[in-house]
Amino acid sequence: MNKEEFLFTLRNKLKGLPAETIESAIDYYSELIDDAMEDGTSENEAVESLGSISDIAYNVIADTPLKKIIETKKQNKPKLNGWKVAFFIITAPLWIPIIFVVGIISLSVLLAIVIGVVAVFALLIGLTLFGIILLVYSIFYYVRVSLVNAVFIAGLSLLCIGAGIVTIDLAKKLFVLIKTGIRNLISRLKNDAVKKG
Amino acid sequence: METQTKRGLLDVCVLAAIKNEDSYGYQIIKDIKPYLEISESTLYPILRRLEENNMLTVRSQEHNGRLRKYYHITDNGIKRLNDFVDEWQEIMSIYQFITREDKQ
After folding, report:
1. What are the chain A neighbours of B47 within 8 Å (beta carbons)?
2. A50 vs B40: CB contact, 8 Å cut-off?
3. What is the pLDDT of residues A148-166, one digit of tens each?
4. What is the ipTM of this complex?
5. A10: buried, middle or exposed (CB in 10 Å: 19+, 13-18, 0-12)?
């Protein structure tokens, strides 16, 4: 590797550091190669004797305070240029309706799920309450009409209560399943956004 | 040599290399190498650190149509060297304690 290549590679590896830090390191190694060559070492040998470029870059980065690196990162953040802004505005008629439609669809799907869950719970609670009322009614029925009919109604009410209790438990499990599903979906979307951003 | 000891010694050696006259990177390495293992990439952070701590100053001077950085020792740097020599008296007595003969 010759001097040019060495300095080019080193500069690339130091990308993201403050310009002053990069220039200082480049000057230092450039001078060392020149001096070694003046001392009778060949260009390739002079570069070889410096060791691995990755190690050199690592040492320079390790020696730079984290605060300086973060400041440089902030300054180098890409800004929206005019062309990008223009592109977004021109294509607005295309992407605004798409975002709108996607938003509406996902909102209605979410609403449908919520309503469905509420309806199932309401139905089951209703069934249980109906069973309890029926049980009370059967006592009156026994007093006023006959034992056989009262027992039949009481049995029916117990069936309702039992079915209600068992299915409410199942519905709860289903509800938890839907909740974790939605949560997982949201966290996955968030991860994707961070990776792209 | 143990790395911690070596680190401390390298700083002093670099100062010693520019004690009598200003010197530049390649020459400093050449002067230290017979005594202590030093590489180009270890010298770089030492020079920066010594400059930050006002032990030396840097000036660029033209040499063969290019710029070369010369390092000049400051009063602080000279004081550091003298302190090291004083410390060494202590270290020598510790050395004698460590290597003393066992009394039978």
Report:
1. 28
2. yes
3. 878 888 888 888 888 888 8
4. 0.85
5. buried
Sketch the domain layout of chain B as residue ranges.
3-98
Does residue B63 sit in helix, strand or coil? strand
Q: Given CB atoms, is A55 within the 8 Å cutoff of chain B?
A: yes
pLDDT in tens, B50-85: 999 999 999 999 998 899 999 999 999 999 999 999
Gap between the Cα atoms of B58 and B69, Å rounded: 6
- Sign of the C-alpha dihedral, residues A59, A65, A69, A72? negative
Q: How far apart are CA A38 and CA B68, in angstroms?
A: 13
The full length of chain A comes to 197
8 Å CB contact of B64 and A38? yes
Q: Which residue from B minimizes the CA distance to A36?
A: B26
Domain B3-98 in CATH 1.20.1250.20? The answer is: no
